[in-house]
Fold:
Amino acid sequence: MLQRTSPDAMARAGLPVPADGDGFRLAMRAFAGSVCVLTAEGEQGPTGCVASSVSSFSVDPPVLALSLAARCSTARALRVGSALGVSLLAPSDEAVARRFSGFSGASGAARYAGAQWTRVAPGAQVLADAIVGLGCEVEELVPRHGQVMVLARVHTVAGAAPARAPLLYWDGAYRGLCPEVSS
Structure:
């Protein structure tokens, strides 16, 4: 009888892992991503989520690319024309990330509790002490494989304090950025 070996065990043994859902998830855990909170206002009120898939798409004009689960409340709010707020979090904002991740049980406006928010053009909310807050409007939503790729035009840059290191998500956990030790 053939027994399926787990992708974790295969990877630990130095063996190639199939690119099925489990193998791909394992591979993606090796990618570190900056943690952002995305905010929008839908028909049910304020909503938001955490994303580590935010990246620059274009500088001229300034456009971000990111992806969301198609069924999440933030994607639904963006489909009805909500402005999008993007807040790059610092390690001190981990509690905010946990509330917006959905695992805390908080939803809707309850996710915003315990933090200060600022409204920026074109009407988006960003975390007041975020490393960077971006006010965006959605240019295009591209649905694929249960996800939505979002192209969002940036209208406002708030904060822009890169001297603070970002909160990262790596290997299934939130982590701070540690400076390399020189030898």
About this structure: The chain has one domain: 33-162. The radius of gyration is 18 Å. Residues 7 and 23 are 6 Å apart (CA to CA).
